[in-house]
TrEMBL record:
Xref: InterPro entries: GldB-like
Name of the molecule in the record: Gliding motility lipoprotein GldB
Keyword Lipoprotein: yes
Keywords (A to Z) from UniProt: Lipoprotein
Length: 338
């Protein structure tokens, strides 16, 4: 009876979720001395070449020269054959509205100086922790809101038209309002670092472990990694929460944790159950109407933070630790009411 009552109280408490004071300005983590690390940032701007294409022959050559953009950003596999794709794209890029998109990109991004500064800082920090890191080729593109970002060890492609922000005349289609919040210029490099942090290139995981805990720690490591590449980026930007959501999660961390324990979720492997706590959703309604979505990934981040406070390990050693249970057990994670 006591257990049932506690379970009923958890969502009720979340209805009373109150945001605490915003302390994003005080969220910096350790910033290493990167003054002697030189990063040469060169960005190949391809958006004008594609949006201003003059002939079918020019378009054909562009697609041939840029296979990642062709396959990923322009979604080649959605067309029955290349000739149909060619005609559809040529018609798109002859549309007069394309000029508006080009103007918007110029207004928001200008000469890309702010983006270059973010890239330089993130890559300098990355090279500090990983001296063998090689700066990848970086390209920007605009395709008419087809795709946002591609990241590999050798190439980064940024869809600038996706990141124009609230004032843009055209926004990505098919996304909920809360998802559009993350498509602003300041989210580009945090997103790149998160993709680096979750990739096998940096993050060693046990792929045979299908538990929620394994996903939690895997994502938690990626957030911890990204935060140290961009040390003063607000946590809310890294995890794509609003300031109110992340303040509420911090204040109610004990309630969130109680839900996971009471429902024995840590070692759950059922895919449908995992989706409720890991995948994209506006809220985690199982906990409460104001609990943000993907809440298990945020909890995983808190566990990893606690682990790094408890253990004398480096960032590199953390990222090479494949055992989520070791990280969890050694973290002594037991959040208390704030």
């Amino acid at each position: 009876m006591e257990k049932s009552l506690r379970l009923l109280l958890i969502p009720a408490l979340f209805i009373l979720w109150l945001s605490s004071c915003n302390n994003e300005s005080n969220e910096c983590v350790y910033q290493p001395d990167i003054s002697n690390i030189e990063i040469n940032v060169e960005i190949e701007r391809l958006e004008d070449d594609l949006l201003g294409v003059k002939s079918r022959a020019d378009l054909r050559q562009f697609l041939k020269d840029n296979p990642v953009i062709t396959e990923i950003f322009l979604k080649r596999n959605q067309y029955p054959d290349d000739s149909i794709m060619m005609e559809a794209l040529y018609k798109r890029f002859q549309n007069p509205h394309i000029d508006t998109l080009k103007s918007e990109i110029g207004r928001v991004f200008g000469d890309l100086s702010e983006l270059k500064a973010d890239i330089s800082t993130a890559f300098a920090n990355l090279k500090y922790y990983y001296p063998d890191f090689k700066t990848p080729k970086i390209q920007t593109i605009a395709t008419g809101l087809d795709h946002d970002l591609f990241v590999s060890d050798s190439l980064i492609v940024i869809g600038l038209d996706y990141y124009l922000g609230d004032s843009a005349k055209y926004r990505p289609l098919g996304l909920y309002g809360y998802m559009l919040e993350r498509y602003r210029p300041q989210y580009i490099m945090p997103s790149v670092m998160l993709l680096y942090g979750i990739s096998p290139m940096f993050n060693k995981t046990d792929v045979s472990d299908k538990t929620i805990l394994a996903d939690m720690i895997g994502y938690g490591k990626s957030f911890y990694f990204a935060k140290h590449m961009m040390p003063c980026t607000p946590d809310s930007v890294l995890i794509w929460y609003s300031s109110d959501e992340i303040d509420g999660a911090r204040k109610n961390q004990d309630i969130i944790w109680a839900h996971f324990l009471e429902n024995q979720l840590l070692y759950e492997t059922n895919h449908m159950v995992k989706k409720k706590y890991i995948d994209e959703r506006p809220k985690t309604f199982e906990i409460g109407e104001k609990a943000p979505g993907r809440i298990a990934t945020w909890v995983g981040w808190q566990i990893v933070k606690q682990y790094m406070e408890e253990e004398e390990v480096t960032l590199q050693e953390l990222m090479q630790e494949p055992d989520p249970r070791k990280v969890f057990n050694n973290s002594n994670y037991r959040p208390e009411r704030k």
